[in-house]
Amino acid sequence: MNPIDQHNQTITRRHFFGKSSVGIGTAALASLLNNGASGAELPGISHFAPKAKRVIYLFQNGAPTHVDLFDHKPDMQQYRGSDLPDSIQKGQRLTTMTQGKARKVLPTPWKFRPYGECGTYMSELVPHIGSIADDICLVRSMYSEAINHAPAITFLLTGSEMPGRPSMGAWLSYGLGSDNQDLPTFCAMTSRDKEASCGQIFYEWYWGAGFLPTHHQGVKFRGTGDPVLYLSNPKGIDRDLRKKLLGQLSKFNQIKQKEVGDPEILTRISQYEMAYRMQASVPELADISTESQHILDMYGPDVTRRGSFAQNCLLARRLAEKGVRFIQLMHAGWDQHNNLPTQLAVQARDTDQPAAGLVKDLKQRGLLEDTLVIWGGEFGRTPFAQGDMNNQKQHGRDHHPYCFSLWMAGGGIKGGSTYGQSDDFCYNVAENGVHVHDLQATILHLLGINHERLTYRFQGREFRLTDVHGDVIKPILA
Question: 308-329 burial string, b = 16+ CB within 10 Å, else e?
């Protein structure tokens, strides 16, 4: 069968409204070009009342070490330098960097203490996150299936270890639509540690649309040059001329759409419309000179450096205020294989205050109650040493998917709480395990979405973010 005919015959109600909204976008473009105003996109429909309207995902590429930051196990000190018991390791798969090598227990050298009225124990390396302990839920029983960075990040963000599936933000754009016509529904920003100690790569599919219509993919905000690629007009092209060019281009695209019926042409029209509006909205959004000094101070000294994690956190708050649905910050620098003693404290210092500052800023503006903030990486780090643990400068921890920690705040999450437990060595889940698909199901639930019903038909199969798995973690809900 002709693929276009097949697409038209299998179109669903959601596909119809999605396509119609872009068609309406065509009319809105004409209105925009003629009158300077834009029509509204049809809103998405939740399955039930949501607790959160938007998500800010502070993704920590490279995998923060739960052993040294969030999982307090003082009894490990007595086992320092001893072999990790086989009854704990259970023959589980390790990376080639440590497979077949000695597994000497390495307790954290940093001190833990209780924070907040809830008394949650966290490391001295994250005192600012500790200061918001009463607002967060610390999950200490996450686990994954992937053992290397790119597959694990892809799994967490798309539900599959292999590239090609829609990312979480794209699913939410498809399922819920937009709350702001002048900015993208899904925005992504990246940063890395100043020492460039971590070689993690940011792949475009981390914020891609996969097989969904491409207008659902994340728009990347850059740390240098124009905040968004091709936002500025070329030399010799002013805004009035751009209006005329877009008007003519829209007519040609409409003609082509009628000829071939390709839905991606409708996407192209809507994206031209969005790009035109972003020329006015993005420069204002990126100008942090309007922020008062006490707000800048909340995010730390690095907030004025373009492209820093601190400034990205501030921009995330500004995007949240504007109604952007999904804001994905990705910060690389947590891959401490051989520089744990020297680099972990630096990395924590660069990210601790901005993350806590974001939560505090959202809270004081009344935005935290309907904004879900997530902080975490793709997996954790081994509780045994990689390299010579007696070398005070050169040793570290390997990848560890079998148990790790992350935290969430706002958006219907029970603040001042912890969930799940690891075993005595921070190695395996001992209580209330949370699989990656469980986390995804819970995020969708907080946004009013039944994860089993948010589907898209592709190549003869109904796909969803959680594949055929996932349970909502109800005990962490407020």
Answer: bbbbbbbbbbbbbbbebbbbbb
